[in-house]
Design brief:
Structural class: alpha/beta
Largest sheet: 5 strands, mixed
Shape: elongated
CATH class of the largest domain: Alpha Beta
Strand order of the largest sheet: 5-4-3-6-7
CATH superfamily of the largest domain: Glutaredoxin
Number of helices: 6
Order of helices and strands: HEEEHEHEHEEHH
Helix content: 40-55%
Number of domains: 2
Radius of gyration: 25 Å
Number of strands: 7
Length: about 200
Amino acid sequence: MLATLLVSNIVAWVVILLLGVAMLALARQVGVLHMRVAPAGALTTAGGPAVGSASTALPATTLDGAKITIGGHAHGTPLRLLMFVSASCPMCKALIPMAKSFANDERVQLIFIGDDEPAVQKAMIAQHGLSAYPFVNGPDVGQAYEVGKLPYAVLMGEDGMILSKGLVNSREHLESLVIAHEMGLRSVQDYIGKLKAVGA
Protein backbone atom coordinates (compact mmCIF):
# COMPACT_ATOMS: atom_id res chain seq x y z
CA MET A 1 0.00 0.00 0.00
CA LEU A 2 2.80 2.36 0.99
CA ALA A 3 4.73 1.47 -2.17
CA THR A 4 1.69 2.18 -4.35
CA LEU A 5 1.20 5.58 -2.70
CA LEU A 6 4.89 6.42 -3.17
CA VAL A 7 4.80 5.46 -6.87
CA SER A 8 1.62 7.46 -7.46
CA ASN A 9 3.19 10.54 -5.82
CA ILE A 10 6.33 10.21 -7.97
CA VAL A 11 4.21 9.85 -11.13
CA ALA A 12 2.11 12.89 -10.13
CA TRP A 13 5.25 15.02 -9.59
CA VAL A 14 6.71 13.91 -12.92
CA VAL A 15 3.45 14.84 -14.69
CA ILE A 16 3.42 18.24 -12.93
CA LEU A 17 7.02 18.92 -13.96
CA LEU A 18 6.29 17.93 -17.56
CA LEU A 19 3.25 20.20 -17.60
CA GLY A 20 5.41 23.06 -16.30
CA VAL A 21 7.96 22.49 -19.07
CA ALA A 22 5.17 22.32 -21.66
CA MET A 23 3.71 25.61 -20.38
CA LEU A 24 7.10 27.35 -20.63
CA ALA A 25 7.57 26.03 -24.19
CA LEU A 26 4.07 27.19 -25.12
CA ALA A 27 4.66 30.65 -23.63
CA ARG A 28 7.87 30.95 -25.66
CA GLN A 29 6.09 29.94 -28.87
CA VAL A 30 3.31 32.46 -28.24
CA GLY A 31 5.97 35.16 -27.82
CA VAL A 32 7.66 34.15 -31.08
CA LEU A 33 4.31 34.12 -32.88
CA HIS A 34 3.46 37.55 -31.48
CA MET A 35 6.72 38.91 -32.88
CA ARG A 36 6.16 37.32 -36.30
CA VAL A 37 2.53 38.26 -36.83
CA ALA A 38 2.44 41.74 -38.30
CA PRO A 39 0.08 44.27 -36.77
CA ALA A 40 -2.72 45.39 -39.06
CA GLY A 41 -2.02 48.75 -40.55
CA ALA A 42 -2.60 50.98 -43.53
CA LEU A 43 -0.64 49.73 -46.52
CA THR A 44 1.73 52.46 -47.63
CA THR A 45 2.23 52.90 -51.36
CA ALA A 46 5.29 54.30 -53.10
CA GLY A 47 3.52 56.94 -55.17
CA GLY A 48 2.69 60.50 -54.19
CA PRO A 49 4.32 62.85 -51.69
CA ALA A 50 6.47 60.94 -49.20
CA VAL A 51 5.71 60.67 -45.51
CA GLY A 52 7.69 63.42 -43.79
CA SER A 53 7.47 65.81 -46.72
CA ALA A 54 5.50 69.03 -46.82
CA SER A 55 2.19 68.91 -48.68
CA THR A 56 1.47 71.44 -51.39
CA ALA A 57 -1.45 73.78 -50.76
CA LEU A 58 -4.04 72.98 -53.43
CA PRO A 59 -7.02 75.32 -53.83
CA ALA A 60 -10.24 73.39 -54.25
CA THR A 61 -14.00 73.82 -54.15
CA THR A 62 -16.33 71.55 -52.23
CA LEU A 63 -19.53 70.16 -53.76
CA ASP A 64 -21.56 72.79 -51.92
CA GLY A 65 -19.44 75.58 -53.45
CA ALA A 66 -17.18 76.44 -50.49
CA LYS A 67 -13.55 77.33 -51.15
CA ILE A 68 -11.05 75.10 -49.34
CA THR A 69 -7.31 74.48 -49.38
CA ILE A 70 -6.09 70.90 -49.38
CA GLY A 71 -2.63 70.60 -47.83
CA GLY A 72 -0.31 73.37 -46.71
CA HIS A 73 -0.52 75.09 -43.34
CA ALA A 74 -3.82 74.97 -41.43
CA HIS A 75 -3.45 77.08 -38.31
CA GLY A 76 -5.48 75.78 -35.38
CA THR A 77 -6.03 72.34 -36.93
CA PRO A 78 -3.54 69.89 -35.37
CA LEU A 79 -4.49 66.91 -37.55
CA ARG A 80 -6.26 66.56 -40.89
CA LEU A 81 -7.36 63.35 -42.55
CA LEU A 82 -7.96 63.22 -46.28
CA MET A 83 -10.28 60.31 -47.11
CA PHE A 84 -10.36 59.33 -50.77
CA VAL A 85 -13.63 57.50 -51.47
CA SER A 86 -15.98 56.57 -54.31
CA ALA A 87 -19.67 55.77 -54.48
CA SER A 88 -18.83 52.74 -56.63
CA CYS A 89 -16.48 51.31 -53.98
CA PRO A 90 -18.33 49.06 -51.45
CA MET A 91 -15.37 49.15 -49.03
CA CYS A 92 -15.39 52.96 -49.12
CA LYS A 93 -19.06 53.06 -48.17
CA ALA A 94 -18.49 50.56 -45.35
CA LEU A 95 -15.55 52.62 -44.05
CA ILE A 96 -17.29 56.01 -44.04
CA PRO A 97 -19.07 55.53 -40.65
CA MET A 98 -15.79 54.29 -39.13
CA ALA A 99 -13.93 57.31 -40.52
CA LYS A 100 -16.53 59.67 -39.02
CA SER A 101 -16.32 57.97 -35.63
CA PHE A 102 -12.51 57.89 -35.76
CA ALA A 103 -12.28 61.59 -36.64
CA ASN A 104 -14.64 62.48 -33.80
CA ASP A 105 -12.77 60.36 -31.23
CA GLU A 106 -9.29 61.51 -32.31
CA ARG A 107 -10.33 65.14 -32.93
CA VAL A 108 -9.15 65.02 -36.51
CA GLN A 109 -10.52 67.28 -39.25
CA LEU A 110 -12.01 64.93 -41.83
CA ILE A 111 -12.13 65.88 -45.50
CA PHE A 112 -13.65 63.56 -48.10
CA ILE A 113 -12.29 63.55 -51.64
CA GLY A 114 -13.73 61.81 -54.68
CA ASP A 115 -13.86 61.94 -58.45
CA ASP A 116 -17.27 61.11 -59.88
CA GLU A 117 -20.41 62.70 -61.23
CA PRO A 118 -21.60 65.43 -58.81
CA ALA A 119 -25.08 63.89 -58.64
CA VAL A 120 -23.60 60.52 -57.63
CA GLN A 121 -21.45 62.11 -54.95
CA LYS A 122 -24.33 64.18 -53.59
CA ALA A 123 -26.44 61.02 -53.32
CA MET A 124 -23.64 59.37 -51.33
CA ILE A 125 -23.34 62.43 -49.08
CA ALA A 126 -27.08 62.28 -48.35
CA GLN A 127 -27.05 58.51 -47.81
CA HIS A 128 -24.11 58.56 -45.36
CA GLY A 129 -24.78 61.86 -43.60
CA LEU A 130 -21.66 63.65 -44.85
CA SER A 131 -23.14 67.13 -45.18
CA ALA A 132 -21.16 68.33 -42.14
CA TYR A 133 -17.85 67.39 -43.80
CA PRO A 134 -16.07 69.11 -46.69
CA PHE A 135 -16.36 66.97 -49.83
CA VAL A 136 -14.08 67.83 -52.74
CA ASN A 137 -15.01 66.26 -56.06
CA GLY A 138 -12.53 66.19 -58.94
CA PRO A 139 -9.33 64.57 -60.18
CA ASP A 140 -6.80 67.22 -59.07
CA VAL A 141 -6.24 66.16 -55.45
CA GLY A 142 -6.16 62.45 -56.28
CA GLN A 143 -3.59 63.09 -59.00
CA ALA A 144 -1.46 65.26 -56.69
CA TYR A 145 -1.32 62.45 -54.12
CA GLU A 146 -1.09 59.74 -56.81
CA VAL A 147 -4.01 57.78 -55.39
CA GLY A 148 -4.45 54.61 -57.41
CA LYS A 149 -6.66 52.46 -55.17
CA LEU A 150 -9.46 53.16 -52.73
CA PRO A 151 -10.20 53.70 -49.91
CA TYR A 152 -7.05 55.73 -49.29
CA ALA A 153 -6.19 58.09 -46.44
CA VAL A 154 -3.56 60.76 -45.83
CA LEU A 155 -2.91 62.15 -42.35
CA MET A 156 -1.23 65.54 -42.14
CA GLY A 157 -0.28 67.93 -39.39
CA GLU A 158 -1.04 71.59 -38.79
CA ASP A 159 2.11 72.61 -40.68
CA GLY A 160 1.06 70.61 -43.74
CA MET A 161 3.58 67.83 -43.13
CA ILE A 162 2.42 64.42 -44.32
CA LEU A 163 2.50 62.28 -41.17
CA SER A 164 1.30 58.95 -42.59
CA LYS A 165 -0.73 57.60 -45.47
CA GLY A 166 -1.95 54.37 -47.04
CA LEU A 167 -4.74 52.11 -48.17
CA VAL A 168 -7.28 51.59 -45.40
CA ASN A 169 -10.24 49.25 -45.01
CA SER A 170 -10.95 49.20 -41.27
CA ARG A 171 -11.01 51.37 -38.16
CA GLU A 172 -7.80 49.64 -37.09
CA HIS A 173 -6.09 50.81 -40.28
CA LEU A 174 -7.20 54.39 -39.64
CA GLU A 175 -5.88 54.20 -36.09
CA SER A 176 -2.56 52.85 -37.38
CA LEU A 177 -2.01 56.15 -39.20
CA VAL A 178 -2.10 58.06 -35.91
CA ILE A 179 -0.12 55.36 -34.06
CA ALA A 180 2.62 55.37 -36.71
CA HIS A 181 2.86 59.16 -36.36
CA GLU A 182 2.95 59.01 -32.54
CA MET A 183 5.68 56.34 -32.63
CA GLY A 184 7.75 58.39 -35.04
CA LEU A 185 7.40 55.82 -37.82
CA ARG A 186 6.64 56.37 -41.47
CA SER A 187 4.32 53.35 -41.55
CA VAL A 188 3.46 50.06 -39.89
CA GLN A 189 5.70 48.43 -42.50
CA ASP A 190 8.67 50.30 -40.94
CA TYR A 191 7.70 48.87 -37.56
CA ILE A 192 7.58 45.36 -39.03
CA GLY A 193 11.00 45.89 -40.61
CA LYS A 194 12.46 46.93 -37.25
CA LEU A 195 10.98 43.85 -35.56
CA LYS A 196 12.53 41.61 -38.21
CA ALA A 197 15.89 43.34 -37.80
CA VAL A 198 15.78 42.81 -34.03
CA GLY A 199 14.72 39.16 -34.43
CA ALA A 200 17.46 38.41 -36.99
